[in-house]
Specification:
- The chain is of the alpha/beta class.
- It folds into two domains: 2-78 and 396-437, Urease, subunit C, domain 1 (Roll); 80-388, Metal-dependent hydrolases (TIM Barrel), CATH 3.20.20.140.
- It has helices at residues 2-22, 95-104, 107-123, 143-152, 200-212, 240-252, 264-273, 286-295, 303-311, 318-341, 361-368, 373-388, and strands at residues 24-32, 41-49, 52-58, 67-70, 74-78, 80-85, 126-131, 160-163, 217-221, 256-261, 277-280, 298-300, 405-409, 424-427, 430-434.
- Helix 8 crosses helix 10 (318-341) and helix 9 (303-311) packs antiparallel against helix 10 (318-341).
- It is globular and about 70 Å long.
- The protein binds zinc ion.
């Protein structure tokens, strides 16, 4: 009897859940950015049932029996997307301390921390991220895949993730985790299974290995980087033949290719090879940007990364300071030129270089460098959805799309920093937040970076 009543109770629970799923929710606010229009819609209404949007418009009447959530003097928008995060990592504090922790922390402990970063990200209004690299020295764990799967299964709360696993790069290049350490300190040279590959055939093997292990997107490093000790920031690191193999193999497997690239020559070669997005792009010249525009290649500028490093230069070794200054000095002109030339710009921040959850600060940096607020909002919604290949499901507020919806106070078209004050987040019809965040900001690492996260 007891077990029968328990089973009945379980059925009743499912009954309630099913009813809740059918519940119609009406979201109202004084304004709405729908992801498509050039202006905000006044008196925006989005009607949600289950995980989807069933109607959108101005002054729509609420169906009878609907739960109405009136958000007042606020702006509704599609859930934001960040096309460049590293949710399993955190480089935001003292560089040397972080580097040491990469070596001494148990990977499981780092994975547990990542659940906090995921929550902080979705609570900041970012309902989707393209996570571009997750690597733990000497470990073959795929923590980003685990994080994505756990979010998809509802085990933890976080954004929808498209993950790149390890990122593919050359021996001694930006992604080589043993660069800057004594030769063979880690017992062996990294290989394709660490994402380190030389020559077209090894690059193909690395792509296949990552897709086999759950990659949704392929990340490559085609030039040097700022936060790596043993390379120059703008030198090319893959040959045109290697880039061609990277793109061909990825596209055959229907995966898009994002490449870390600061240098102009590497960018030109990568664009010719057919990559889908150039990440950073600091030193790209107008001629290179024009090629991007003509080919439809996206630029993911990650202005927040340089901004953060420049504001905390003392946290980095002198060699990295010099690279950061050079990249920082070049990227503002590059970005202004990209906007002027009409290059497709995707919103991406490089979260992990700065504390997770501060992604929205990128909007103001974009607007300060010449982008209109509406175009900045589009970059984080419709543009990112197009780049990620998920535009049929998300990115705009339209009937039939998944109900990923955020609200921010006031009018972001007149004050873009409203995006930093998102107070309502819905993902696939479920309310993640309506009011103060659940993830305590205390749980996010702050500088000087101390890896200990308070748990009590
Ligand atoms: Zn990055």
């Amino acid at each position: 009897m007891r077990s029968t009543s328990r089973i009945l109770a379980i059925f009743l629970c499912f009954g309630v859940a099913a009813q809740a799923a059918d519940q119609i929710i009406v979201l109202k606010a004084e304004r709405m950015f729908d992801g498509k229009s050039k202006t905000l819609v006044q008196n925006g209404v989005v009607i949600v049932q289950g995980n989807a949007i069933v109607d959108v418009g101005s002054n729509l009447p609420a169906p009878s029996g609907a739960q109405v959530i009136d958000l007042g003097d606020a702006t509704l928008a599609p859930g934001f997307m960040d096309a460049h995060t590293h949710l399993t990592l955190d480089y935001s504090g003292d560089y040397n301390v972080r580097r040491l922790h990469e070596l001494d922390l148990n990977v499981s402990e780092q994975a547990i921390r990542a659940t906090i970063f995921a929550r902080a990200t979705v609570e900041a209004g970012f309902t989707t991220v393209r996570d571009l690299g997750s690597r733990f020295v000497g470990s073959r764990e795929f923590v980003d895949v685990a994080l994505r799967n756990s979010i998809n299964k509802g085990v933890i709360v976080g954004p929808r993730m498209l993950v790149a696993t390890k990122g593919i790069g050359a021996t001694g290049g930006h992604f080589d985790p043993t660069s800057g350490f004594r030769d063979f300190l880690f017992g062996r040279e990294p290989d394709y299974s660490d994402g380190i590959a030389d020559g077209p055939e090894e690059i193909r093997k690395a792509v296949r290995f990552e897709v086999k292990n759950g990659a949704d997107v392929i990340k490559g490093a085609v030039s040097g980087g700022v936060l790596s000790l043993a390379d120059e920031v703008d030198t090319p690191q893959l040959t045109p033949a290697e880039m061609a193999a990277l793109v061909d193999e990825s596209h055959r497997l229907r995966k898009k290719v994002a490449v870390h690239c600061h240098g102009d020559q590497a960018a030109r070669e990568a664009i010719e090879a057919g990559v889908d997005s150039i990440e950073h792009g600091s030193f790209m010249k107008p001629e290179t940007l024009t090629r991007m525009k003509n080919k439809g290649t996206f630029l993911t500028p990650t202005l927040m990364a340089t901004e953060w490093i420049m504001s905390k230069l003392d946290n980095y070794p002198p060699a990295l300071q010099a690279k950061a200054k050079a990249a920082g000095a070049a990227r503002s002109d590059m970005f202004r030129n990209a906007v002027k030339l009409g290059v497709k710009i995707s919103f991406g921040t490089d979260a992990a270089v700065f504390p997770h959850g501060q992604n929205a600060k990128e909007f103001k940096l974009m607007v300060d460098l010449g982008m209109t607020p509406i175009d900045a909002l589009k970059s984080a919604t419709a543009n990112d959805a197009e780049l990620l290949g998920i535009a049929q499901k998300v990115g705009t507020l339209e009937k039939g799309k998944l109900a990923d919806i955020v609200a921010m106070p006031g009018d972001p078209a007149s004050d873009i920093t409203a995006t930093e004050r998102v107070f309502f987040v819905m993902k696939e019809g479920k309310i993640v937040r309506n009011g103060p965040p659940i993830a305590s900001t205390d749980a996010k690492p702050t500088e000087p970076a101390d890896v200990v996260v308070p748990v009590d």
